[in-house]
Amino acid sequence: MEKTIKERIKKIKQNNPFKTQTDIAYELIRSDILEFRLKPNEKINQDAISIDFDMSRTPIRDAILKLEQDGLVVQAAKGYQVFEMSVKDYMDFHEFRIRLETYATMLATRLMTDNQILELKDSLREFNKYCEQGNLEMAAIYDEKFHELIIKGSRNEYVIKTHELFSSKQKYYLQRLIKMGLFDVSYAVAKKKHLEIYRAICERDEKRAEEAMRSHLAFYRHRMYDLL
Fold first, then answer.
1. Would you say 28 and 8 are in contact if contact means Cβ atoms under 8 Å apart?
2. Domains contained in the chain, CATH given
3. 224 band by pLDDT with thresholds 50, 70 and 90
């Protein structure tokens, strides 16, 4: 059953009682976009959101500005609307992502600790488990975690911060793949590529790990381009 807005706000506060109203509004609207309760190209009605969230317009406005930085909302003729995926944006984003994550993978292969590699193995196992169960939402979570662990394993603050800056857009595209029925077709390839990346990292083979990551991400770029 869909949670009410009050229930969602209560959960956010339970997880972190120090969050500001702007933080809460940001999480709620971001969730609505990523879960497609707010549709692509839909106008953001700040007055209605202010009433629904029982907040003044200031935290709503500030949250929308943060979402604009994330690339999830864009300016419209009047106000803001939800971002709509285009072929060019998808291709540009994935070209950038390939360059960032292949570099991060090279660094992570060299620098990840044994404990971090064990975490990577755990995320790989969970991803495979949920893929086999057909639970694509949970599989997507562990797909993201696998990549995030490699980013963190690079130990490069610029790589980590850059990834954080674009993580919302990355999640948006992953959710679009699921909604379009493309992720279930692609997960068999992802399982194979994740395993190749993991094994190369375990063996500290930087070149092989980097190439496996490049091949993995390029598959999604080419597949989506062919379908759009």
1. yes
2. 5-82 (1.10.10.10), 87-227 (1.20.120.530)
3. low
